[in-house]
Design brief:
binds D-glutamic acid; 4-stranded parallel sheet; 2 domains; 5-stranded parallel sheet; 257 residues; alpha/beta; Rossmann fold; 11 helices; single chain; 46% helix
Amino acid sequence: MSNAPIGVFDSGIGGLSVLRHIRSLLPHEALLYVADSSHAPYGNKSQHFIRERAITLADFLIAQGAKALVVACNTATAAAIETLRKQYDLPIIGMEPAVKPAATATKTGVIGVLATAGTLKSAQFAALLESYGKNVTVVTQAGHGLVECIERGELATDQVRNLLEGYLKPLLEAQADTIVLGCTHYPFVRPLIEEIAGRDVTLIDTGQAVARQLQKRLEEKNLLAEAGKPSDVTFWSNSQNADAEEVLKLIWGEWSA
Ligand code: DGL
């Protein structure tokens, strides 16, 4: 047993879509969340830059006493998870686009993956396609500009709608019936994606699976917190936006309920 906290980070507020699943599955765990918003988006940055940021954030969370880390960011996982696992001796859970479940779920044989440019061009994503994408057609689409809007708390503006319509069009035209939300920011615009894609399209995100994987790793290492009252969640953000705290509170308040 360990009542030490779990450290979670993302390039910004996207990882809150993972944190809410962790909170709901493991309410007794103390959680630390870092939004590296002043460096977002990661999606168009070099792998070297993202690795350096991941090490800085991991050092910070470990200095706060973290017993495990969750990289709640597909882009940072692709760039940095191997480096982090080599460098630190604690459970580190990452995330990747859900190509495997999508390939199982599709009936048309076509799946769409909406993710950042960084994730889509990574070696990890190529390996994922090699392992699970061979018997289906995989249509990929980078979501340029979406993270910036979501970081400003814009979840349903005309700009977001226009971007999403443009990005979903090629996936829908290719007959994708299953779309992977391959960036942790995108679940926050899920209602709009559902509206544009229609009821026949299944959307898959990995937040819940990551929370279950975290639980499993903590169990294996005998690191779960003692059951008691729900524990605290502590947030840090280095956002330069004046209303960053409001946006974080709004998103966490609305989506963790
Ligand atoms: N939320 C992140 C992801 O899952 C990164 C988005 C970004 O900063 O570009 O990929």
